[in-house]
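ok posting inputs for the uracil job
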Amino acid sequence: MDTVAELSRDEILAILTREVELLAAEGETALAISSDAIARLKNFRGDTDFAHDEDRRSGQATKRTRDKLCAAENCIPPTPPFSLADGTKEERWNELRDIVLGCAECKKHLKPGKVIVFGAGNLNADIFFCGEAPGAEEEECGVPFVGRAGKLLDKVIEAMGLQRSNVYVGNIMNWRPEMDTPFGNRPPTQEEMNFCLPYLRAQVEIVSPKVIVALGATAANGLLGYDETRRMADVRGRWHEFLSIPLMVTYHPSYLLRNTSNGAKRLLWQDMLLVMERLSMEISERQRNFFL
Ligand code: URA
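and the output
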């Protein structure tokens, strides 16, 4: 992992910008910043080299990234049609997995040595957790939610009295959205999501869960239909539907890693209690009072 000392100012600025964009995508409208952080940012901006050369260059870099993204968006073709043979859940899932792992468009977006990430878990699960896109750890091994966000998701699942092996976990995206920096993640574009969505839909159809949990704004946009004005505050904690299956929208675990306030954790947990109630799962007093 890179330490901040090893990163250039351009890279640090890109990370900060992306963090703020991700928080905004989750519906945050304000940020609490410590006075120490404000002082550091003032120093950062006060650097004359940065204020001139690098500032200008980072502006150009942002535009370059946007241009590249637009070019990539335009190149994304429609999802190739596919159909699955009749068979057991396992057979259909294996066939779908082969289709996705062989998908030329998905492969086109991989960096050298990285792999496509397909959903994983119990094909008879009652709960289907849907995330956004693979991150650095996932694109190494091809399994969703194995990094820090995944560890937190595991804790949530365990707090519900379940194990990862009881649920199914998938993502809107099957590849990690490309960045022109070696670090960081960006939310997928609408075109990227549209390309991968049929693969996710087919997984939902195979697993046929009783409840889907959309983790974060991207999953909500993928499953409910893209709407850039949608705010997490308006959709989380409420029941929606995807393919006539009850869909709960909640925070993405990465959001909780960035926003460590108990308030956000409590809201996510309230959403999970609604899921447990919907599934008539037993809820202990301890679980009810979790985070309170
Ligand atoms: N975040 C996601 O949304 N999905 C993953 O698989 C990992 C991190």
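notes: Residues 1-292 form a domain with the Uracil-DNA Glycosylase, subunit E fold (CATH 3.40.470.10). The CA atoms of residues 11 and 29 lie 24 Å apart.
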